Amino acid sequence: MIPLNIKREHIVKAIWEIDLNGIPPRRNSKKFCLIFKGKQYPPKYVLSLANRFVNGEKLDPSEFTGGKETNNFLKKLGFDIAKIFPFDTFVTPISSKKKTFEEIQKHNERCPKCKNTIEIMLKKIYGDVKSNYKFEVSTNVKDYKDIPFYQELKEIFLELQKHRGCEDFIRTPTLPRCDFFVPNPGFILEFDESQHFTLSRKISLQNYPQNLKLGFLYTKWINLCEKINAKDNNPPFRDEQRAWYDTLRDFLPEIKGLESTVRLYSKEMQWCNLNPKNKEDIAKFRELIENRRKRSSSWVATCILQSNGKYSNDERLKVLSQIMDLVVKKMDGDVVILFPGGWYSANEQEARNLYEWVGENVRDMLSKKEENIIICLGIDGRVAQYAKDQIGIAISKKGIEAKGRKFHSAPQEKGHVELAKDHLCKEENKSRFFDLNGRKYFLCACYDSFGIKQKKIPNFGMDVILDLVHGFYPKGEGGSGDVYFAKHGFAGASKEWDCLVFGAAVFFNRKIPERWPSGVYWNQGSKSTQKWRYEDNPIKSQVEFEISIKEGIASVRIYNLR
Prior knowledge:
Layout: H1 8-21, E1 32-36, E2 39-41, H2 43-55, H3 68-76, E3 80-83, H4 101-104, H5 112-126, E4 130-133, H6 150-164, E5 178-182, E6 187-192, H7 199-206, H8 218-228, H9 238-250, H10 252-256, E7 262-265, H11 279-293, E8 298-307, H12 313-330, E9 334-338, E10 344-345, H13 355-366, E11 373-381, E12 389-396, E13 399-405, E14 433-436, E15 439-445, H14 448-454, E16 464-472, H15 482-497, E17 500-508, E18 519-520, E19 543-549, E20 552-560
Parallel strand pairs: 6-7, 8-9, 8-17, 9-11, 10-11, 15-16, 16-17
Antiparallel strand pairs: 1-2, 1-3, 4-5, 5-6, 8-20, 11-12, 12-13, 14-15, 17-18, 19-20
Helix pairs in contact: 1-2, 6-7, 6-9, 7-8, 7-9, 14-15
């Protein structure tokens, strides 16, 4: 019999352990698999292992049955269960050498069933879907003189010609066929296999205009180009040719009046595991596609303070309102505005005593705006005694969307901060992550970003980390490790989760370092974070401005997430 006190969080922990250590011999499954984040796991072994996290020991497989009993239990906790196809593979059993999931996943990205499954799923959701669809679109850049992005297209074309000196890479007058076209609502979907991720493709992507609408995560695709670095020299200009045709497909919304081009990476999940007859699988695929279609026009604004340390909660509320108004005036689209940790202080009371005041005041400000805005800020409590509170919250027009209590303390804080049990622990029944326009955001309370790296916490679907850092002081007067934080906090977390990291902080009685990065994306492979330099960071802000405030200066940087 399966113990009823096994919850979803215990199943997730068991999955993480399997990702790290593999599956023992004879514990694989022959009929069913648990699908989590595109990966497959044997349901009965997952349950057996999960029992250790709540009841102290693995559950003996003789005490419960696989199949219906196990599958129904896991389904009630919100997990997907699917039948195993003959060619499906699980995580390799435990061996003397532990491997990452990427090393042991060997499913063929050219699997014909994967692409066929995507077509069937698209038809289930949108009805009419045309595969291998031909648009009568010119491949000659000179034919685009009349569209708004002609100069950008021309620059991309010239950069591809310069890359390796292959100037004559266009060999067909019209664009080759697209993978899928969905007439209603009107977008194409491209299924990108590894050969699409080349240095030529990186060059084209880096020259895209900031306001081009994309149905995929721009920085992720650039990073894949650097990581995979595919080469196809048959013919010698094949990489440039493929990059140019992909560019034209991404510009089809401008050329043909379509919606954003959606892209899927062949190896981001095992697509043939999706069951077109399963309503849960259809809903899961629909959410994935719709999220990518909504990825356009999203921004993150980081607020960094240069402060004399003299402020009140009411003054900080006025500053928040002023910055929000300025950000909205400068941007077109939805935005997350990130303020530092300890933005508000409950002094000797618990931080939760400020939740209602902060939530109501910020919600009222946001309700007057047409845009979708999420304000993220930190609240500290009990600052004059032990067991301090350090909380991050996210607020929308609806009120508080997410709360996250610090789960990883700085070395000097041990025993002085009331920590959450782990990064999944809820604060007053609110999780620490939220969604906006198809992206999932994860709140870190200051040193939590170090915890992601040091505890080797696997990414469970987050696209962006938001770190609410408290403050940096002059040397000898307190914590002054702004460079250390950027290297091992921001860059370390980005490296561990392969996602964007944004941070906000206060520089007390010292100038804000001009080059200190408040937005970071790791693209340095296996390089040590110790050797990471600011110039390695590919993320640049699109807009920056400063305003004078009563306690000093507020510096705001706005980043386009594409």
